[in-house]
Amino acid sequence: MELSQSNAYRLAIQTRRQIDVLERLLQVTRYRGFELQAFSVQPLADMTSFLITLDVCSSKPISLLSNQLQKLYDVQQLELCASPSLRKVAGQ
Question: Helix or strand or coil: residue 77?
């Protein structure tokens, strides 16, 4: 039996400091078929922006997600970082 290979990705996203942008990022991530592994939000020093880090995995190419996230109005910058080392959860 062959299983599809999941790849891990980390995205660093700078956005306007609006709470609803967090909901939109997570919604697009789910709609595009990526599984959220980790999520962090930090306000930047200018107090007008967030730095959001998403660790996701999927067998799909990351371009399917990153292209859609870049279209969001509040996204100012998006960078694909080095792949995180994700721990397997027992039973998966």
Answer: strand
